[in-house]
Amino acid sequence: xxxxxxxxxxxxxxxxxxxxxxxxIDVGTPLNLGTPTGGTPIGMYKKLVNTGLNWNNVHxxxxxxxxxxxxxxxxxxxxxxxxNLHAYVGLNPYKIHxxxxxxxxxxxxxxxxxLTILGIGTNGHIAFNEPGSSFSSVTRIVNLSQQTIMDNSxxxxxxxxxxxxxxxMGLHTIMKSRxxxxxxxxxxxxxxxxxxxxxxxxxxxxxxxxxxxxxLRVFYxx
Length: 222
Ligand code: PGA
Known about the structure:
Blueprint: E1 4-6, H1 10-27, E2 31-35, H2 42-49, E3 58-62, E4 64-67, H3 77-89, E5 96-97, H4 103-109, E6 115-118, E7 140-143, H5 146-152, E8 165-168, H6 171-175, E9 179-185, H7 187-198, E10 216-221
Parallel strand pairs: 1-10, 2-3, 2-6, 3-5, 6-9, 9-10
Antiparallel strand pairs: 4-8, 7-8
Bound molecules: 2-phosphoglycolic acid.
2-phosphoglycolic acid binds next to loops.
């Protein structure tokens, strides 16, 4: 059975995951890293950029991006990644990847994802694969659920400004990653984590497909 590894607090969880990622980077062999956005991974990025790691061997592949806002928009995921990671680690622009309609082919051509780090939505989404997403989905444009629009409105001035569409890696794209780390913070995520990991595997809870992943670690803190 999958276990949820409980960390004492957000700082510890961020440090723990950053250390795991840092060790992989430190090996120095090519590393294709699936990189999340949102509130949960911010602490992990903070820890990672303060370690003096050499990122020359790393390519980053973002999980998703909004459709309909400019890359320079304060809430775009391009901007998020620049502010939280890319500005600090000196990655060559050609090693920074964002979703497009041939993303799966690009990922495969570059050797596949080695480690993908995920948060989870309160509705069980991973990346922007909302409830009802096919387990065989690849990178595509999706409509955001009302729940996600509400959850993400905290980052915008008003709910009307939250984009209604996004481009996201599919569930199949994520499942092909050789290793997956799932992070959840706060009581509002605990129930969905338990249902996703210990309940029925169903497209109604997209994260539940992770039960079939052969190399998954799950971290949670209050
Ligand atoms: P959060 O979002 O980290 O901002 O809570 C996670 C997600 O929606 O995947």
